[in-house]
Amino acid sequence: MKKYQGETGHPLSVMQYCPKCGHAGFVVNDERSKKCEKCGFTFYLNCATAVAGVIMKGESLLLTRRAEEPYKGMWDLPGGFVEFDETPEEALVREVKEELSLKIRVKHYLFSQPNVYAFSSVDVRTTDLFFRCEVEGSESFVPSDDVSEARFVPLREIDVQKIGLSSIRKAVTFLQNHREILEK
């Protein structure tokens, strides 16, 4: 991460007052923290955790089309943010159910990628965890929540330039070049 100097888009740029005492002297401490000049409280910005499901049907990967910004209309993988009270695996099961009304079983962890998720003019840093999943029961799905469309696309035919998020592009490219990781 580059050195934070109060630049627009950095998540700390929107924090103008100390969250502990309310003092306006809440100043840059380093690239991932701000410190209150009055009470000494230091707020550290840590990355959020997000999950993505790698769901295969033969040689095809399940892609979802984003219904909302950022990257509205671009391809993605099913998934989303991990809530405070759940494991990444639980979050992925919940997110796939919300987005596709699809019941899945998480088979195993594949890899992770750092990401920057632009949300309301703030760049949220995330660590995206990728899991191999299997559909339980019916493979029919109904796009909803923040997904406008979903379909299985042959892995080798996916144009990664039509994928919005950089971590998802990198992950799909990796899967295209390392198909053996899916055969565990």
Q: Can you walk me through this structure?
A:
The strands form two sheets. Strands 4, 5, 6, 7, 8, 9 and 10 form a seven-stranded mixed beta sheet that branches. A three-stranded antiparallel beta sheet has the order 1-2-3, with no helix packed on it. The two termini are 34 Å apart. The mean pLDDT is 92. The protein is 14% helix and 39% strand. With 184 residues, it is mainly beta. It is built from two helices and ten strands. A hairpin with a 2-residue loop joins strand 1 and strand 2 (33-36). It folds into two domains: 11-44, no CATH class; 48-183, Nucleoside Triphosphate Pyrophosphohydrolase, CATH 3.90.79.10.
Number of strands: 10
From the coordinates shown, what is the CATH architecture of the largest domain? Answer: Alpha-Beta Complex
What's the CATH H-level homologous superfamily of the largest domain? Nucleoside Triphosphate Pyrophosphohydrolase
**Alpha carbon gyration radius:** 19 Å
What structural class do helix, strand and pairing data support? mainly beta
Number of domains: 2
Helix content: 10-25%
> Looking at the structure, what is the overall shape?
elongated
Stretches where pLDDT falls below 50 for ≥5 residues?
none
Largest sheet: 7 strands, mixed
What is the chain-wise order of helices and strands?
Answer: EEEEEEEHEEEH
